[in-house]
Amino acid sequence: MLNAIVFLIILRAAPVLSSWIPSASNIFVEVATWLEPTNNLLAITEVNGPEGRTRRCRLMASGVDDTDGLELAVAKCGSRGIIDLPHPRYIISRPLDLRLEHSTLNVHGFLTFTDDLDYWKSNHIAFPFQNQSLGLVFHGHHFTLDGHNTGGIDGQGQKWYDDARREGNKYGRPMSLAISHSHDVVIKNWSIIQPQFWASLVAWSRNVLLKNVYVNATSYNPESWEEPDGKSWLQNTDGLDTYNADNVTVENFVYQGGDDCLALKANSTAITFRNITCVGGTGIAIGSLAQYPGVTDIIEDVWIEDVKLLPAPSNQCALFQGLLLKAWGAETHGTPPNGGGGGLGYAHNITFKDIYMEGIIRPIVLQSTLTYLSNVTLSPGNFEWSDLHFRNITAMSKYNRLIWLDCPAQHPCRNFTFRDMHLIPGATDHPELRYVCNNVVLGGKDGLNECHPSDSMLERREDGWPHE
Ligand SMILES: *[C@@H]1O[C@H](CO)[C@@H](O)[C@H](O)[C@H]1NC(C)=O
Ligand SMILES: *[C@@H]1O[C@H](CO)[C@@H](O)[C@H](O)[C@H]1NC(C)=O
Ligand SMILES: *[C@@H]1O[C@H](CO)[C@@H](O)[C@H](O)[C@H]1NC(C)=O
Ligand SMILES: *[C@@H]1O[C@H](CO)[C@@H](O)[C@H](O)[C@H]1NC(C)=O
Ligand SMILES: *[C@@H]1O[C@H](CO)[C@@H](O)[C@H](O)[C@H]1NC(C)=O
Ligand SMILES: *[C@@H]1O[C@H](CO)[C@@H](O)[C@H](O)[C@H]1NC(C)=O
Ligand SMILES: *[C@@H]1O[C@H](CO)[C@@H](O)[C@H](O)[C@H]1NC(C)=O
Ligand SMILES: *[C@@H]1O[C@H](CO)[C@@H](O)[C@H](O)[C@H]1NC(C)=O
Ligand SMILES: *[C@@H]1O[C@H](CO)[C@@H](O)[C@H](O)[C@H]1NC(C)=O
Ligand SMILES: *[C@@H]1O[C@H](CO)[C@@H](O)[C@H](O)[C@H]1NC(C)=O
């Protein structure tokens, strides 16, 4: 940095400096060393890199609100630059949609959301799918978000969990991080703690790599620990969802929370998950799909390998499903997020390999009558599943079910194969529930000859779940 020219931009004039500041904004001062870090200070250095001149922005934390500072840093260094956030805590008080190209954002501490619920419920970036909400969006291409194993995002989710007690998809809960309309993106060594809703989303994007990512949604409210269904109010704290996304890779991902660890929503193609640990929640989900009448959802070319699904601490969200394939029923009842149905589409070429799970209620489930409305029943929908391959799956189930595939009669599941299955039930009553395959075309070489049609629902219910 020797001989580098340092530009200091004063966002808001500190009183001590105001005597020599001739005007309020954009003052360039040549200095040799950093001044004492002051609130709302952005320092820019220009360095000559191998690809030419590069700008490097270093933003100090204000302690109050860092949204203006972040926007300015992105405006100055978000294109062919580097942005450094060295401090432990940067406050996000309003929705941000930031553009990055050929640049890196180094977040050494946490981008911390304010938890003024009323504010966020009426101020967020709309995400049309399921009428959901975004808090922080990055869009662009060839950019990296690097949390250096010490930083990322703190959603301050506890108030959101308390507010959404027993209410799925409550309106206005912003997702902590969205990558949208982007390509060639890397997110690495990055944590998202206490997400308000889904921790992260990749939408309308391609070529995205998440490597060494950690998500943890924990309820510290003892009231939530007494819930009969064991969900601890942590529902909708998904780790990552993909939507209209192509070529997304997730490697070395650790999740604790109360919903899908990883979920593929409509139009997720060429997706690879490798070395994933999920503690509590509802496992790895393909879905939900076919929620919107007349819309075709496509899932294709998915590889999911080396996954551990482990039980959560007893006061957090239990582990419900392991591998969960879920499509809405045939009729349309209500509107999204919790109503809908009647959509179309298919999932094709999915492999699950080297999966370990324990303490799980339903290890492998396929649903075709999904609705989140408790007062309606839908008949099996029109979403089709084919070429699904399960290899080396170890599951210690909590109750009776091991595999429960409930495919639509009008679109049977085709070309499902099972190899090296090590499945152990946790309950010995109703052995007929262990392997249920409704409308699955099984050949003889598919490795699941014990699977049979059944409508029985006689599972154990002593801890209030399942309650279908
Ligand atoms: C989203 O939900 C909110 C709150 O229920 C509602 O006011 C709004 O009309 C909904 N928007 C859409 C597009 O459904
Ligand atoms: C950050 O992640 C990379 C892989 O993306 C890894 O090689 C590196 O060791 C990590 N950094 C630290 C500080 O662990
Ligand atoms: C998929 O994305 C990775 C980066 O994550 C990239 O290296 C690779 O070339 C992409 N594959 C295709 C087919 O575009
Ligand atoms: C999640 O956070 C809680 C509270 O800090 C901690 O007890 C738990 O071990 C964490 N889970 C993982 C998987 O790191
Ligand atoms: C798998 O992920 C865990 C957690 O991120 C990490 O500690 C471990 O080194 C990874 N294993 C491999 C083989 O990369
Ligand atoms: C998914 O892709 C199909 C085919 O391109 C398209 O018709 C459909 O609208 C897309 N679905 C969503 C939810 O974007
Ligand atoms: C199935 O998906 C995998 C994983 O994306 C891919 O490597 C493979 O080429 C696909 N198979 C076919 C026949 O397209
Ligand atoms: C099967 O999966 C387990 C994890 O459940 C893994 O430890 C083991 O190495 C895998 N076996 C083979 C042959 O890959
Ligand atoms: C289900 O309940 C909702 C209110 O929660 C109501 O609007 C709807 O009409 C009910 N549907 C049926 C089929 O009873
Ligand atoms: C079943 O899936 C495998 C792997 O995707 C594929 O090679 C094979 O052709 C499929 N078989 C049928 C009968 O579709």
Chain-wise SSE layout:
Elements: E1 5-10, H1 15-18, E2 41-49, E3 52-59, H2 67-77, E4 81-85, E5 89-92, E6 96-107, E7 110-113, H3 117-122, E8 125-127, E9 132-134, E10 136-154, H4 158-163, E11 174-175, E12 177-193, E13 200-216, E14 240-256, E15 262-264, E16 268-279, E17 284-289, E18 296-310, E19 321-328, E20 344-360, E21 362-370, E22 382-397, E23 403-406, E24 414-424, E25 435-438
Parallel strand pairs: 3-4, 4-6, 5-7, 6-10, 7-10, 9-11, 10-12, 12-13, 13-14, 14-15, 14-16, 15-17, 16-18, 17-19, 18-20, 19-21, 20-22, 21-23, 22-24, 23-25
Antiparallel strand pairs: 1-2, 2-3, 8-9
The structure holds 2-acetamido-2-deoxy-beta-D-glucopyranose (10 copies).
What report would you give on this structure?
Its main location: secreted. InterPro entries: Glyco_hydro_28, Pectin_lyas_fold, Pectin_lyase_fold/virulence. It holds the Pfam family Glyco_hydro_28. One of its GO terms (cellular component) is extracellular region. The termini are far apart. The protein has one domain (83-438): Single-stranded right-handed beta-helix, Pectin lyase-like (Pectate Lyase C-like, 3 Solenoid). Mean pLDDT is 90; it is low at 1-39 and 462-468. The strands form two sheets. The protein has a 22-stranded mixed β-sheet that branches. The protein has a three-stranded mixed β-sheet with strand order 8-9-11, with no helix packed on it. The chain has 468 residues and is mainly beta. A hairpin with a 4-residue loop joins strand 8 (125-127) and strand 9. It is globular, with a radius of gyration of 24 Å. It has helices at 15-18, 67-77, 117-122, 158-163; strands at residues 5-10, 41-49, 52-59, 81-85, 89-92, 96-107, 110-113, 125-127, 132-134, 136-154, 174-175, 177-193, 200-216, 240-256, 262-264, 268-279, 284-289, 296-310, 321-328, 344-360, 362-370, 382-397, 403-406, 414-424, 435-438. One 2-acetamido-2-deoxy-beta-D-glucopyranose (NAG) binds at residues 244, 266-267, 295-298.
